[in-house]
UniProtKB/TrEMBL annotation:
Coiled coil: none annotated. It comes from the Bacteria. One of its GO terms (biological process) is negative regulation of cell division. It holds the Pfam family ParA. This is Flp pilus assembly protein, ATPase CpaE. SUPFAM superfamilies: P-loop containing nucleoside triphosphate hydrolases. Keywords: ATP-binding, Nucleotide-binding. It comes from Shewanella psychrophila. GO terms for cellular component: cytoplasmic side of plasma membrane; cytosol. GO terms for molecular function: ATP binding; ATP hydrolysis activity.
Amino acid sequence: MTSNIYKIQDTESQVDYTQYRVASSEQGKRIAVASAKGGAGSTSIAANLAWVLSQQLDNRVACADLDFVSGDLDLHLNISANNRLTEMLQYPERLEPIVFERSGVKAAEKLHVFTGYSQQLAQEFWPDSAAFEATSIFCQQQTDYLIWDIPSFCLRDSVGFEAICSADIRIVIIEPTLASIRHTNQLLTQLVTDHDQQTILILNHTKPEKASLISLADVNQAMGQAVDLVIPFSPEKMLSTATLGSQVADDNGRLGRVFKQLGVKVTGEQQAASSGLKRWFRRG
């Protein structure tokens, strides 16, 4: 029998995350983006979602990278990274609004990016659960949405696993491979969903669809459910996000439409309510 690598704690000792999600109108929603197996494009998806929410749907957004060693969220959003996120997680008792403004790098209007990148190849710091929750709630109080880009390796750790468990919206990325399907099934089995939580399953074609031996129908059958969105194989456009900081969410083609649909699923808003139109009504 295959052991379940995602079962970090016994049920009796698991934290009740409801206290963190009972948010007032002053607290934004928490989004966790992760893939059960690395290399599925979760950072690209997190960056483009942040762009859609902030630039196309006119929301205040914080996007944070939990990979302190090999993370590259800064490249996707074309910013100069810092290590302020590490400091925030180390000293959550010092958090106040001015810290948010000074620690986050402004990638665009209403979009702040938080990183804690180390200059070392070894993991020098890792937060505890209490510090992660305190920092998350603090950021949610400053924004409409907080997006955590969670690397797959830390889902085996209690903090990383709790990060996706506690999110209001969990975005899970899957590839059309046997390994990705198996690990994603294991992860989803452990993600107990409360009535106020949402899980979005995205199939990302990181290889040509014609070359894949596993079809969309095969993935749906193996998962026992239909995926919510399918990202087509678009290496040139996705590469531009990772290397040039240009967002495919602004593309008018099929790829751009997928990210617009993701924004609608997250917010419940119709894309017709563009940022400019929303601002016009607000002024009126």
